[in-house]
Specification:
single chain, 168 residues, two-stranded antiparallel sheet, 12% helix, globular
Length: 168
Amino acid sequence: MPAFPAVLAGTMARVFVYGTLKKGQPNYKHMINTAKGLAKFQGRGRTVEKYPLVIAGKYNIPYMLNIPGTGHHVAGEIYSVDDQMLQFLDEFEGCPDMYQRTLMRIEVVEWEGKGDTGEARAAAEGIMECFVYSTTTYPPEWVGLPYHDSYDSSGKHGLSYILRESRD
């Protein structure tokens, strides 16, 4: 079954978030701040391929290392975003230096996306392409960190995310 494209009609793009931008996580506030653009929650999914999701650095930031076939199927949320929000996310994620925005195949686990298009209905039962912020620019020792299948800042790992405004 072919994956559905990440860029939708009307210049909306699909983005898969797996870290601090998910609902209930420290940076979710940016996803609902319409001054930064529009982000509409569509559903939950997980990467078709396995990737290492690590929590690294002195601020306990979640990173998906772009090493396909290693790690876990990473769980996250699917959003449709407008160009303004996509540009904000690129800046927020330090793209292209810290993270790179690439297309990945995402398996839909739960779909809330509303729409009368055949694509939306088919997407609810399959795989779609989404933009994902992963990284190829990481210290080699990060490959040896524990791999997670989902991220929660207050998870049992004990590595709470440090908000930008709280960093020294």
